Amino acid sequence: MAYWLFKSEPDVFSFDDLIAKGETGEQWDGVRNYQARNNMRAMKKGERGFFYHSNIGKEIVGICEVAAEAHPDSTADDPKWECVDVRAVARVRRPISLDEAKAEPRLKDMVLVNNSRLSVQPVSDAEWEIILELAGGTEAL
Q: The EVE domain covers which part of the protein (predicted)?
């Protein structure tokens, strides 16, 4: 199973907003970056991702799950843009800031640390475990 990281500005769409969408979740629309789109095309239903609040907070706050694989983005006029649907599954016990991730030597190769602008990015198995360790695990919703 692959792991991912989804970035969203919390004043536009926060983790609490995703929680409010319930089991159905929400399409991860509006992505207009080829690398991020290709990452979504690679996702499989049931894979997990960190939910990262960008701009405000700059921290990993929760875990979401791919609820539907890549499909046309309903907000795009061009069919080349696709998205996945995601739903919230858990909060991290303690948010992990970008500064904390950058300070952790074991995360030196993490995409978030090296390319914090990419909105949808892969997370390695080891990075996933390290983040969960730093966060003290998760809390059920």
A: 2-134
Instruction: State the distance between the two ends of the chain, measured CA to CA, in whole angstroms.
Output: 22
In this structure, which amino acid lies at residue 57? G
**Tokens 């939910």 map to which residue?**
51
| Residues ≥6 apart with Cβ < 8 Å to 42 | 2
Q: Which tokens sit at 31?
A: 């992505």
Going by pLDDT thresholds of 50, 70 and 90, the confidence category of residue 110 is: very high
Q: Residue 59 is part of which domain span?
A: 3-140
118 and 35 Cβ atoms separated by less than 8 Å: yes
pTM above 0.85, yes or no: yes
Q: What is the DSSP string of 13-60?
A: S-HHHHHHTGGG-EE------HHHHHHHHH--TT-EEEEEE-SSS-EE
CATH number at residue 68: 3.10.590.10
Distance (Å, rounded) from C-alpha 139 to C-alpha 29?
Answer: 26
